[in-house]
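Lecture 7 notes: from sequence to structure.

We start with a single chain of 107 residues. Read the sequence below before looking at the structure.
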Amino acid sequence: MAWIYLAVAGLLEIVWAFYMKKSEGFSLLTPSVITIIAMIASFALLSVSMRSLPLGTAYTVWTGIGAVGAFVVGIVVLGEAITPMRVAAAALIVSGLVLMKLSSSGA
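Now the structure, written as tokens:
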């Protein structure tokens, strides 16, 4: 169950990063509110997952999901540049996430 909480927390990190971008420096109400709610929910679920997952694993996976997810959303939704170096960097992050998951003991 901890991994499910962690995955949802990571997805919520993508949500708050996107809406933070859309809030224009917290000057627009609706995206700002969505950002804050998604942040609180993401942190809460991360905290719950850390009850049984090691700190390093949970935090690395959470930030990795957020980083790669924000990268993909930036390209797909916001039209940001896709370059071979950026794709390689994202692939390395995903590789690290897989290794973290594989190195975790049964939790």
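Residues 55-76 form the longest helix (22 residues). Keep this in mind for problem set 3.
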